[in-house]
Amino acid sequence: MTLRWYGPGYDTVALKDIKQIPGIQGVVTSLMGKLPGEVWTDADIAEIKAAASAEGFEILVFESINISDDIKIGTEKRDEHIANYIKSLEAAGKAGIKTICYNFMPVFDWTRSDLWREREDGSFTLAYNQEVIDQIDVADFRTSMEKMADGHLLPGWEPGRLDRIRELFAAYEDVTEEILFQNLVYFLNAIKDVCLKYDIKMAIHPDDPAWPIFGLPRIITDKEQIVRLLTTVDSPHNNLTFCSGSLGTNPKNDMVGIIHAAKGRIPFAHLRNVRHNSEGDFEESAHLSRDGSIDMFAIIKAFHDTGFDGVYRPDHGRMIWGEKALPGYGLYDRALGAAYIEGIWEALEKAGK
Ligand code: CS2
Ligand code: MN
Question: Of all atoms in ligand 1, which is nearest to the CA of residue 270?
Answer without folding.
Answer: 6
